[in-house]
Design brief:
The complex is a heterodimer of chains A (176) and B (160). With 176 residues, chain A is α+β, with helices and mostly antiparallel strands. Chain A has 2 helices and 8 strands; from the N terminus they run H-H-E-E-E-E-E-E-E-E. Chain A has a domain at 63-172. The chains are: A alpha+beta (176), B alpha+beta (160).
């Protein structure tokens, strides 16, 4: 069955007119112009939203803090690895090892040139050039020169943060 | 309600991701430390290779596999030297236990005849090479469930 657009509009208008808008029962009919959210519903929805938004903000803030802490920890790991591999390389190149101070290591290479690894401020330096990143500091660097090896221990700390990593390792000279 | 459900789901997923990331970061750091300690054992044997083939060094009978031993610094010498002491070693308030063992090495021909190759002790004609030792270094990470053992192996040669 087909009806024209005019007839359909008329049907709608009739429906609105015949609805029980003014009745004492106060029932909301399908075509009631008053249909919508009540104040209570709005308040409930609003309080839900505020509660959820607060929870989410707290979770996100904590999450971002933790992600930054993880990034700092990863930087510590990377620096610890880099320091260890740099020291290993130069100790393996050396013909003689001596440690004039606890935080200084003097290496005499095969061609009788010298390398000095030391703690300068909060950086480990190789002949005066820092080999540690700008975002970390070295708190303790200790060398123990043994007969054909050197024991190295150091503590890395993220700058302006609490993450630390203590490393102890030994590097032996190459066998002749 | 739909938006609350979506946001709650997102929150739970984010929290799970965050906790997993923290766990992974700790595991990475723990493994790095364990690897450093393990490498130290190998480096100590490389020092001993050049300094000590006596009973306190690479010929220490209390280190022959399966007996575990560990290195210690002997401060009675000048300069200080490494020695091997029987038993395992606990590190970082019992977070790690490390040890090394020394295995005899056999070759398919006497050490004086070249070329010769390292073979299993049960191989026909296997001859003990007293100038070569196989070192197995092991570290156990106590803070994580198995598999929590890392192992490195190397050979040392008498060159003194």
């Amino acid at each position: 069955m087909y009806i024209s657009l005019f007839k359909f509009k008329q049907f709608i208008k009739d429906g609105i007119k015949s609805s029980d808008v003014g009745s004492s029962a106060g029932l909301v009919q399908p075509f009631d112009k008053r249909a919508g959210f009540s104040m209570i519903e709005l308040l409930v929805a609003l309080s839900f939203s505020v509660f959820t938004a607060t929870g989410l903000t707290l979770i996100m803030t904590k999450g971002v803090k933790d992600i930054r802490a993880i990034q700092r920890a990863n930087r510590l790991n990377a620096n610890a690895e880099f320091i260890a591999s740099t020291l290993t390389y130069w100790v393996k190149q050396s013909a003689q090892i001596s440690s004039p101070a606890a935080s200084t290591l003097d290496l005499t290479l095969g061609d009788f040139s010298y390398k000095t690894i030391a703690l300068t401020g909060t950086n480990i330096t190789l002949d005066g050039s820092a080999i540690t990143g700008n975002d970390i500091e070295i708190n303790n660097l200790a060398f123990t020169a043994l007969k054909k090896s050197v024991r190295i221990s150091y503590t890395l700390k993220a700058k302006n943060a609490k993450e630390t990593l203590s490393v102890t390792t030994t590097v032996a000279q190459r066998s002749p | 309600m739909l938006s609350v459900a979506l946001i709650a789901t997102f929150g739970v997923a984010f929290q799970t991701l965050r906790i997993q990331s923290i766990k992974l970061s700790r595991l990475n750091q723990d493994k790095l430390k364990a690897t450093m300690y393990l490498r130290e054992l190998i480096e100590v044997t490389k020092d001993l290779e050049q300094t000590n083939w006596t009973a306190t060094g690479l010929n220490n009978l209390t280190c022959v596999s399966p007996l575990p031993c560990h290195p210690e610094i002997n401060t009675t010498t000048d300069p200080d030297t490494w020695i091997l002491v029987d038993g395992e070693e606990s590190l970082d308030t019992n977070s790690y236990t490390r040890s090394l063992t020394i295995n005899p090495v056999f070759r398919d021909q006497p050490n004086t005849i070249f070329p010769n190759s390292i073979v299993d002790s049960s191989a026909p004609g296997a001859t003990l090479d007293p100038n070569t030792k196989k070192i197995t270094a092991t570290i156990i990470r106590k803070n994580i469930p198995p598999p929590n053992t890392l192992t490195l192996e190397t050979y040392v040669y008498f060159t003194l």
